[in-house]
Amino acid sequence: MKKHTSGIHHITAIVGHPQENIDFYAGVLGLRLVKQTINFDDPGTYHLYFGEENGKPGTIITFFPWADAYKGRIGDGQVGVTTYVVPVGAMNYWKERLTKFNINFNEAVRYGETYVQFDDPHGLHLEIVEHASGEENNWTFGNITKEVAIKGFGGAILYSSRPEETAATLVDVMGLEIVGQEGDYTRFKSTADIGNIIDLKMTTGVRGRMGVGTVHHIAWRADDNQDHLEWQQYAMDHGQHVTEIKDRNYFNSIYFRESGEILFEVATDPPGFGHDETPETLGSELKLPIQYEHLRERLKQSLIPIDVRPLD
Fold first, then answer.
1. Which segments constitute the VOC domain (predicted)?
2. Which residue from 28, 62, 119, 243 could staple onto 12, CB 3.0 to 4.6 Å apart?
């Protein structure tokens, strides 16, 4: 039986100073810091999660912030652009807000839709598009109201070193549907109402280099643990070299690098971010997996202090 992911679960990127990261994604974009924890593979580094009020799948962007790390290069083998979706009629607000914070932007049109494109402080390429689909984000921060707040992901633009093979993986493995072709881009769509549009650039360019200002991986949704096990076997049956299941505390994960060199993850929707904090306190304190709890005091001393603060 053919499997279909419902859409993007989260996108994870590498950035620089964690306070600059928080100031931009919370202070400027108005997203909620729903979890502050550590990189399970490098516990001396934060892993910060931002999204809508509850951090539901399809809204979460996550970061490994290394203050002194080397600069990366966006290119083939990476997510090139992360797309956010806002309510219809909100675009003028966002152009005014970006101008207010001296963030340069330009406008581009794909598939008849206007995108406002800009970079975050560490060089990640972002864009905003208006869509009617998707629930309102009730999280408000600074001067951002729910009528204009970012709902979550619209999707992403993928840069592949082998676009035709990546296209085949998106269709044959992930179960996305081709819904259009325009210029250099083929458009794919999944079934979710958010995080459901992938534009794959069908021409190649410079090879990406991992570092600050680049996306580390894109994660796709699995319904639950049983569905996740099926995804692991399904991807292996389709020739992917899939990792063992990893417990990330807020979801389980498997990984494989598809033929175009983009790192794919499949992550479970449950248990989510609320099992170790209340809805009111999400993201308010450092949360550690049990295997690192005995290092709490040492880690708190080594991690850079951070603060979620309004910038308006």
1. 7-131, 152-269
2. 62
Give the three-state DSSP class for 130: strand
* 3-class state of residue 277 by DSSP: coil
Q: Please state the φ and ψ torsions of residue 53, each to the nearest 5 degrees.
A: -60, -35
Q: What's the order of all strands across the beta sheet hosting 125-130?
A: 106-110, 113-119, 125-130, 78-86, 152-159, 197-201, 185-189, 177-182
Distance CA 263, CA 243 (A): 12
> How many degrees, rounded to 5, is the angle at CA 193 between CA 228 and CA 188?
75
Type of residue at 218: I
Tokens of 158: 């993928």
CB 152 within 8 Å of CB 84: yes
What lies within 8 Å, CB to CB, of 294 at 6+ separation is none
Q: Which two tokens stand for residue 89?
A: 């009629």
User: CA torsion, points 182, 185, 186, 189, in degrees to nearest 10?
Assistant: -100
Q: Please tell me the distance from the alpha carbon of residue 74 to that of residue 144, in angstroms, as a whole number.
A: 30
DSSP 3-state assignment of 25? helix
Cis omega (within 30 of 0) for bond into 87: no
Residue 12 CA to its chain's centroid (Å): 5
Quote the pTM value.
0.97
131 CB contacts (<8 Å, ≥6 apart)?
Answer: 85, 86, 88, 151, 154
Give the residue extent of every domain in the chain. Answer: 8-302
The length of the chain in residues reads 312
**Confidence at residue 158, expressed as pLDDT on a 0 to 100 scale:** 98
Amino acid letter, 64: F
The two tokens of residue 52 are 């809508």
Q: What is the pLDDT of residues 166-182, one digit of tens each?
A: 999 999 999 999 999 99
Class of the domain covering 8-302:
alpha beta
